[in-house]
Amino acid sequence: MKELSSAQVRQMYLDFFKGKGHDVMKSAPLIPHDDPTLLWINSGVATMKKYFDGTVVPKNHRITSSQKSIRTNDIENVGHTARHHTLFEMLGNFSVGDYFKKEAITWAWELLTSEEWFAMDPEKLYVTVYPKDDAARECWKEVGVEDSHIYEAEDNFWDIGEGPSGPDSEIFYDRGQEMNNVSEDDPENYPGGENERYLEIWNIVFSEFNHKPDGTYEPLPHKNIDTGMGLERVVSVFQHAKTNFETDLFMPIIDETAKMAKGDVHYGDDAEKDISFKVIADHARAVTFSIGDGALPSNEGRGYVIRRLIRRAVMHGQKLGIEGAFLYKLVPIVGKIMESAYPEVLEQSEYIQKVIRNEEDRFNETLKDGVGLLEDLISETKAKGETKLAGAGVFKLYDTYGFPLELTKEIAADQGLDVDKAGFDEEMQKQKERARSARGNAKSMGVQNGLLTDIKTPSEYVGYEKLAADGILKDIIVDNKLVNVVSEGEAQVIFDKTPFYAEMGGQVADKGIIKNEDGKVVAEVKDVQHAPNGQNMHTLRVLAEMKKDAKYRLEVNVEFHDKVKKNHTATHLLDQALRDVLGEHTHQAGSLVEPNYLRFDFTKMGATTPEELEKVEKIVNEKIWANMPVETVVTDIESAKKLGAIALFTEKYGDTVRVVKAGNYSMEFCGGNHVENTNEIGLFKIVSESGVGAGVRRIEAVTSKEAFEYLERRNVLLKETAAEMKVAQIKEVPHKVQGLQEQIKELENKVSALEDKFASQQAKDVFKNVQTVAGKTLIAATVKVSGMNQLRSLADQWKEKSLSDVLVLGSASGDKVNLIVAVSDDAIKSGIKAGDLIKAIAPLVGGGGGGRPNLAQAGGKKPEGLPEALKAAEKWLAEK
């Protein structure tokens, strides 16, 4: 076996399959594109689903890739096991209806054992097969695998529900008994058993069945091959590493972390500290790549995962004695390790470091609050005489403040307490169910449609040059069957030529009509989508008879089309303007180009300021009024990149691409329709800007007539406002508003002063009513004030005069209740805390609250419960 670096293993795998006629597909971004079933790209096949279910037919039916992936279902295991990772790379070779078992197995064996390639010892390789898959067993025997090295496994059947499925065959490498964690005679000591000796390095799936919605299986119209070889695993074999972490993919990160650790700390010296080293190395890779691909920390979805990984790494950094922000310093190390395959990481290093550093600093502040909450939870548990911290409380620490469960256990143990693990697990399960629900019920992969996949009729799009054209009707599909004639209802059709644009790149499909040779309208075009083999497939509402091979006149709705192309060109200008104002790290995260408006999603940390939006809008309009020509260049992809054209990281491009240039300002890869000069757009106006997800903002805008109408509606509102304010000219409105605001502020101050005076008058009577409860003095009363500000003012007066040990005041206004609790310093020393008392009585007024030991407040919606709450305060104090 050769001694290979991780970069050499990756490249050798791709080169081998390239030599077998495979196209090398660049690793897709970790953020899924048009796939609501996935939070992250979690495997190599995740990027191939459209090919495997027949939605799209690839140009080359043989594909190979090294796909970066993220899995987050077992983050807690990372660092504790030899091979769990959040980010990993999956090497794979794929056949979409081309070769099958014989070729897949033959080539796998050649790559693994040939001296030209991996040169592994055949005696160290074992395979497993599905018991009923005699064909796979025979293929393995034909390449030279002995019967004693072939094992049957009932679970060797890949099935994720509806869609392609089939048996699989796993390949194991024998690392020797010296690498094992079970004895020689252990029943698990075999390839496929729970042991460290036989390491699974490759899985080959023979996708040959359709798992139908009714639960039955039928042969696929086109059989596929899907394989996966974990790069981290196979590199550990080549580098004779006990775990994946002792390889060149992780050790440089671990070594750099050790330099930042307090004292003379090294990986391998202490098992507990090794866990922290592994966690930090794993999480540094994951957050670097995910942020580089456009995700940002937040409290939901992908952003929540990033935030959780950063916080988990920070906590483990503290275990190593690392003080302050440190994780961001590891980004260049990750970039250097992965430079040969992912040069973009180093190119974006400064931006990625900034995002991580901000999150680390934020967490270090949050951590202080979390420590206080944990101390409160421990105090409450002890006060109740319980021995376990409540699962819900522990989960809140974990979920909101990033406290690892094991850290909470350690701190609780120091206080003689345990953790309600069952309750914690229950809360964790609820969260997972919420996440699954948020992703919806969309199927992970569709059932393969052999009919559409087999339609290979040539079809030419001529809509760039003309919006009306004659076309021969080549295919008619009704109810998923090919027919020769259709007279009514809905049908999907393909013409040899069409001017109708098929929805793509955010641009909606054209609308229009179909006429026969007599000029009669025979159908309305409702939608146009790409068929699996790339043709423009029209969905029609058929009005009169249409026949296969007949000639028809296809006419696009020109008004609809012209509006769409104005908005599409405006979208390109907006994209570049956002980069100019916000920075080049801003990525497009999606778009929609309709006739009446445009929508543009982009990545950004935090909200976009009004000033930034004004700059963006001004730039776009300046480019519109600059009368810039809009030109299209068709060239090869490398030439387009050299020109400086922006490529969307979510899109796949063919050998030739269209580049749309707006003057010397904007240049993008684009297959859509555009104006010939920016002045055709007329006017651009941003209507709204908002957040739509983790680190993703959305701009909605209008152009041309719609922009004018939008401004006119605002002008009408302004005129109506001027009339209401009784000002002669619109320009006087701001001055009038300013005057009214000053009057309102003056009146509010007067009202506030009167309220304070009234509250003080009440206080004279309230503060006289001091009662003694269990040796402590208490003032508890209802007062008539306007809100919490007056209650706080009364609490300040009480504190200044030291009138009692405890103060409880409540007020009701309509259906709202306010409560405040204050406790003297001496009472706090005896164990009485305002936060504890407010939590005990707030539920009685239908609310909740909290605060510091000396002052706490709560709100509620149950005024009738106020007297009971005050009595409950007496009882609570009596029991203390």
Automatic annotation (TrEMBL):
A GO cellular component entry from the record: cytosol
Coiled coil: 730-764
Listed InterPro entries: aa-tRNA-synth_II/BPL/LPL (IPR045864), Ala-tRNA-lgiase_IIc (IPR002318), Ala-tRNA-ligase_IIc_anticod-bd (IPR018162), Ala-tRNA-synth_IIc_core (IPR018165), Ala-tRNA-synth_IIc_N (IPR018164), Ala-tRNA_ligase (IPR050058), Ala_tRNA_ligase_euk/bac (IPR023033), DHHA1_dom (IPR003156)
Catalytic class of the enzyme: ligase
SMART domains: tRNA_SAD (SM00863)
Superkingdom per UniProt: Bacteria
Catalytic activities: tRNA(Ala) + L-alanine + ATP = L-alanyl-tRNA(Ala) + AMP + diphosphate
Binding site for Zn(2+): H568, H572, C670, H674
Cofactor(s) needed: Zn(2+)
One of the GO biological process terms: alanyl-tRNA aminoacylation
One Gene Ontology molecular-function label: zinc ion binding
Enzyme Commission number(s) of this protein: 6.1.1.7
Gene3D superfamilies attached to this UniProt entry: 2.40.30.130, 3.10.310.40, 3.30.54.20, 6.10.250.550, Bira Bifunctional Protein, Domain 2 (3.30.930.10), Threonyl-trna Synthetase, Chain A, domain 2 (3.30.980.10)
PROSITE patterns in UniProt: AA_TRNA_LIGASE_II_ALA
Keywords (A to Z) from UniProt: Aminoacyl-tRNA synthetase, ATP-binding, Coiled coil, Cytoplasm, Ligase, Metal-binding, Nucleotide-binding, Protein biosynthesis, RNA-binding, tRNA-binding, Zinc
Annotated ranges, domain Alanyl-transfer RNA synthetases family profile: 4-713
CDD domains registered for this protein in UniProt: AlaRS_core
Subcellular location: Cytoplasm
Keyword Nucleotidyltransferase: no
Cofactor comment text: Binds 1 zinc ion per subunit.
Keyword Iron on entry: no
Record's comment describing the protein's domains: Consists of three domains; the N-terminal catalytic domain, the editing domain and the C-terminal C-Ala domain. The editing domain removes incorrectly charged amino acids, while the C-Ala domain, along with tRNA(Ala), serves as a bridge to cooperatively bring together the editing and aminoacylation centers thus stimulating deacylation of misacylated tRNAs.
Function: Catalyzes the attachment of alanine to tRNA(Ala) in a two-step reaction: alanine is first activated by ATP to form Ala-AMP and then transferred to the acceptor end of tRNA(Ala). Also edits incorrectly charged Ser-tRNA(Ala) and Gly-tRNA(Ala) via its editing domain.
Protein name, UniProt field: Alanine--tRNA ligase
Gene from which the chain derives: alaS
